[in-house]
Amino acid sequence: MSQYITDTTKLKCDKGASPAPLTVTSQSFMSIDGKLQATEEDRQPNINIKPFGMCSVLRSSCTPLPIKWDNTSDFEIDGKKELLDCSTCYCSVGGKISIVKCTQNFVEE
Fold this sequence. Notes:
mainly beta
């Protein structure tokens, strides 16, 4: 089952050298475990998605240039689709951004 993505979830770019945290700014009222839930609008370079170290395409700093999130939820927050742990975002430089690790904590019953 897919998990929803929240603030500080680790992202990676297949052309970058290191992971970077996601910063949620697209909405301010829906949260899971005290962290804001991410939407498809959380794709602004250097604001929502930080650099991924060295870029193997540019051979310089891997500043993301995200196009749009794919594989989003059917559910929306304020008209914006929710991000899932299977969501991906292509970078106009040529990389593919994906989720490394969700920050949600689930308790098994």
